[in-house]
Amino acid sequence: MTADEFVDLVRDELGLDISAEHLDRGFDQVPGWNSINSLRLLALLERAVGKPLSVPDLLSAPTLGSVYALAAGG
């Protein structure tokens, strides 16, 4: 999954108006973000990458970019 595909997933599946510029911002600066989105994103990413992801790692990620790195295996 590329960063652009990740942004598209978040935008399309979670209905958030984001761009690649939001990847390095804290979640409090992502328009419309809430804690439920973290769990929804986890399920979406696990389906997209075909493997389980660490819930604690995802919940401690400070930015969407950090979540992307987890999903991308980095």
Q: Could you characterize the architecture of this molecule?
A:
The chain is mainly α and 74 residues long. The chain has a single domain (3-71), classed as ACP-like (Non-ribosomal Peptide Synthetase Peptidyl Carrier Protein, Chain A, Orthogonal Bundle). Helix content is 55%, strand content 0%. It has four helices and no strands. Helix 1 (3-14) crosses helix 2. The longest helix is centred in the middle third of the chain and has 15 residues, at 35-49. The chain is globular, with a radius of gyration of 11 Å. The protein starts with a helix and ends with a helix.
* Rg of Cα set: 11 Å
Output the helix-strand order.
HHHH
How would you describe the shape? globular
- Report the uncertain regions: none
Structural class: mainly alpha
Question: What is the CATH C-level name?
Answer: Mainly Alpha
CATH architecture: Orthogonal Bundle
Largest sheet at a glance? none
Tally of helical runs? 4
Could you name the CATH topology? Non-ribosomal Peptide Synthetase Peptidyl Carrier Protein, Chain A
Which percent bin holds the helix content? Answer: 55-70%
Please state roughly what percent of the residues sit in beta strands, choosing from under 5%, 5-15%, 15-25%, 25-35%, 35-45% or over 45%.
Answer: under 5%
